[in-house]
Amino acid sequence: MKTIKNIMKKTALVLGVSVLSLTFNSCGKDFLETVPTRDISEADVMRTFEGAMMAVNGIHRLMYANVSANTNTSRTDLPSSISVGYGQGISSLWLAMDHMGDDFVYFTAPASWFVMYNWVTQTRPESSAWHNMWSWCYQIINNANGIINRIDEFEANDHDRNYILGQALAYRAFGHFWAVQMWGGRYVRGEANNQLGVPLITSHIIDPQPRATVAAVYTQINEDLTRAIELLTNNPSAINRRNKSHINANVAHGLKARVALVQQNWEAAANHARAARQGIPLATASDLLAGFHSVDAPEWIWGMRVTQATGTTNFALFIALNCLGSPSIVRTEPRLVNREFYDWMAPNDIRRDWWITDSLDPRYNQLLAGGWASMRPWANQKFRVNGSWIPEGSANQIDRAMMRGSEMLLIEAEAEARAGNTAEAQAALTALMGVRVPGFTATNTGQALINEIMQNRRIELWGEGHRWLDLKRLGEGMRRTSAQGHLEALTGGTLDVLIPAGDPRWNIQLPQREVEVSRGAIVQNPL
Q: What's the whole-model pTM score?
């Protein structure tokens, strides 16, 4: 009998080397609990629930795997490979999006991520960072297609079949959504949106594919998510998912809410955000101050559990944000907060504790004693290893929230406010802020209400990968200032200068290798 090891050698299976190899290396509690990986035959991979879940879990493994630029990713006939660097799963993208915004502040030139922060890498098609991130998006898409296009081989019950297919469709939409936001033109409601997007891949394709229009990409994304929601809603297999890494109807609704927000479809954004948080408790004050380290947090809708067994000690989040982690980059280059938006917070807003702003704070000296020689006021302490204030030696593991109920409340509030539904927007904002600022009640209306919601979105989701994408979708440009804490010597000419929405750097350069091997099919973004 052929085993999973033999399957790994066959790219003709379409699932791709990455899914199977990553799955084989990750068969812990997040994977099969009853059938050893070595006992899954080639015939069982897409016929049994256990085999199909291994393929789905392999896609999830890509969320925190190191993805190499060696993958020609808009084609599906070439194997993928693994390396370290900027391609460390979703966390690399989150960090890139926040480093390119205005709410991450540096006090010294960092050893890494600097070309993101000073807006240099957006103009470099040869950048390994974009190669890796492009590869990551299309590995997710191609591996999801491998499941979708072979679902007819599935021999289990309808609930399990729909659970597998629903997750694969959601992942395909997820990959295309990330890609079009970074490399495609900005979506504008009411317009044709025929500007270039990204290659739209829905099957096993060897020939290079041209870039589809932004409109076409979003049409496919919405079709996939609509179908995923149908398959996962009231599905016992999805309701009883084994882990929060698995996609259920709440997650699919949350992804749909994010997409609708970008498309300025306010009614859909609000409705799907409400659906996403059905059955999800609001975060308590203790939850918000616990260090964002555990997938078991009640408000986490979708998340990944990271352990030593996953082999992700170089995981980008650990390196760049994790409080009290061991890497020297954590101790010498803490990310600082935008001082202006910190000052926006009410004096009794509990989120002020996410940053240490006073050298007299006892935690400041505790961190210095723990080896943070470059500790500075305004440094991030939102994310903490094991939620502890005690330096953890060589510990780096921290789980990662990929979707929180708080984000959904913010989407609901913003969408209702922009749609002119003041009472509904105020109710959503009050539900969110009442925990953070005791006694809070939203009273603003009109643009003042929208501004209040957006300010709290920036505060709440700091370090979670939303800022640059928000700036792009809103089309408001970006202006970094010295009052925010930014330094002229480190910002690449972006200090006190408005980068308007029409600046070509908002559409990142496609990887040069992808353009070259496409033999003219893929057109580069203009500079």
A: 0.88
